[in-house]
Amino acid sequence: MPTQPSKTLETFDNPQPNRDYLIHIEIPEFTSLCPLTGQPDFATLFLDYIPDKKNVELKALKLYIWSFREEGAFHEAITNKILDDLVEALQPRYMRLKAKWWVRGGIYTTVVAEHRKPGWAPQPMVELPEFETNDPTRG
């Protein structure tokens, strides 16, 4: 197999470091192993971050996520490990990782972990009016 999992998180320079902007990434095929049974655990990961000087390169992120496929860890530990590794690589202004784990033993688990860069505060959100769509079926 030419492509292999990797723990290396490659980055590139933020093209707009003077602006706060949100990057939203969904990873619907995350897998790891239950540390007690060795059975596979499945999750969808939702990564939101406001970069500072670096952004994550998506192929490297994919290979990094793939590297957990054969590792056993509890949901809480693996979610926080991924967040810690991403924060270390990127040093973002803000980052949130939400892991929605598939049912195991009749129980769904969702783990949310956050990081805020010391001294960083978000700008107030601008509320914009809602406009009608250009839907041709509207009356």
Explain what the structure shows:
The protein contains 2 helices and 6 strands, in the order ββββααββ. The chain starts with 10 loop residues before the first strand and ends in a 23-residue tail after the last strand. The protein has a single domain, classed as 2-Layer Sandwich (GTP Cyclohydrolase I, domain 2), CATH 3.30.1130. A hairpin with a 6-residue loop joins strand 2 and strand 3 (40-50). With 139 residues, it is of the alpha+beta class. It has helices at 58-66, 75-90; strands at 11-13, 23-33, 40-50, 54-56, 94-104, 107-116. 17% of the residues are buried.
* CATH fold-level topology: GTP Cyclohydrolase I, domain 2
| Number of H- or I-type helical stretches | 2
| Main beta-sheet strand count, sense and barrel state | 4 strands, antiparallel
Helix content: 10-25%
Class in CATH? Alpha Beta
What fraction of residues sit in β-strands? Answer: 35-45%
The sequence of SSEs as H and E is: EEEEHHEE
Number of strands: 6
Average predicted local confidence, pLDDT: 92
Output the keywords.
139 residues, GTP Cyclohydrolase I, domain 2, 35% strand, alpha+beta, two-stranded antiparallel ribbon, preQ1 synthase activity, single chain, globular, 6 strands
List the SSEs and their pairings:
Blueprint: E1 11-13, E2 23-33, E3 40-50, E4 54-56, H1 58-66, H2 75-90, E5 94-104, E6 107-116
Antiparallel strand pairs: 1-4, 2-3, 3-5, 5-6
Q: In a nutshell, what does this entry contain?
A:
The chain is an alpha+beta fold and 139 residues long.
